[in-house]
């Protein structure tokens, strides 16, 4: 038997990671940020001077260094080899290219395999763009977060400021970047961004983080009660 699986999908800056982390903490579940893994692949390509379409080269680097998600003092850190790249992968230059790398079929196959291994048989909260449709299609709880492009751009700007990452872009320019990424993610040939047919959609545009978390927790509790009745 697998553990409880919670899949949280949605476009860039819809609040997936923030919400998923809080839910995992509240329930004592394992949290897996799949987007960070694709960012790590993008970082490897950039740091080694590879073309972002060089699938074979990127996969070779992944095999050589490995990608690890490690919980340190309650925070998820991303490592390639022994190097912690948690901060570097959030920089605008990585955000600008991650969709291109994530669209490579070989890279997606490798990451999905790793993600399923990480999920294993534990209770897990996993966020990304194809969790409910591809990575964990049998997840008991599937959530699809949406929000207006402007609100997501404002959140992205705040996130960058809080992380001390400087950007010369305006909110309007970030909004345009997000819209472009939405298009790329939803139109890629392999595992495109889309809502699973059995996912609950939540528009977070006018909601606080606490409100979103509580709404998802209610869905999880409903699912847990159903499982208990069956068991």
TrEMBL record:
Concerning InterPro entries, the annotation shows: Cytidylate_kin, Cytidylate_kinase_dom, P-loop_NTPase
Its recorded reaction(s) are:
dCMP + ATP = dCDP + ADP; CMP + ATP = CDP + ADP
Q: What EC number(s) does the entry state?
A: 2.7.4.25
The UniProt keyword set, sorted, is:
ATP-binding, Cytoplasm, Kinase, Nucleotide-binding, Transferase
Matching Pfam families: Cytidylate_kin
Sequence positions that bind ATP: 10-18
Q: Name one GO molecular function term.
A: kinase activity
Q: Where is the Cytidylate kinase domain?
A: 6-221
Q: Does the keyword Membrane apply?
A: no
> Is Endoplasmic reticulum tagged as a keyword?
no
Q: Where in the cell is it found?
A: Cytoplasm
| Enzyme's top EC category | transferase
Q: Which domain of life is it from?
A: Bacteria
PANTHER family hit by this protein: CYTIDYLATE KINASE, CYTIDYLATE KINASE/PANTOATE-BETA-ALANINE LIGASE
In which family does this protein belong, per the annotation? Belongs to the cytidylate kinase family. Type 1 subfamily.
Name the record gives this protein: Cytidylate kinase
Give the organism, scientific name: Lactobacillus xylocopicola
């Amino acid at each position: 038997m697998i553990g409880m699986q919670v899949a949280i999908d949605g476009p860039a800056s819809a609040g997936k990671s923030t919400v998923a982390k809080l839910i995992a903490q509240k329930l004592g579940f394992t949290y897996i940020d799949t987007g960070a893994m694709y960012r790590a692949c993008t970082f490897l390509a950039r740091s080694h001077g590879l073309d972002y379409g060089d699938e074979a080269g990127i996969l070779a680097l992944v095999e050589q260094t490995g990608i690890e998600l490690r919980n340190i003092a309650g925070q998820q850190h991303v490592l390639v080899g022994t190097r912690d790249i948690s901060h570097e992968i959030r920089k605008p230059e990585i955000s600008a290219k991650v969709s291109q790398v994530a669209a490579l079929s070989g890279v997606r196959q490798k990451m999905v395999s790793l993600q399923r291994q990480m999920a294993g048989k534990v209770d897990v909260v996993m966020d990304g763009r194809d969790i409910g449709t591809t990575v964990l299609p049998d997840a008991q709880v599937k959530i699809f977060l949406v929000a207006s492009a402007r609100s997501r751009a404002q959140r992205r700007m705040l996130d960058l400021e809080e992380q001390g990452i400087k950007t010369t872009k305006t909110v309007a320019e970030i909004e345009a970047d997000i819209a472009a990424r939405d298009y790329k993610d939803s139109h890629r040939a392999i595992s495109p961004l889309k809502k699973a047919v059995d996912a609950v959609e939540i528009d977070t545009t006018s909601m606080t983080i606490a409100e979103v978390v509580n709404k998802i927790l209610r869905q999880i509790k409903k699912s847990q009660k159903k499982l208990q009745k069956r068991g």
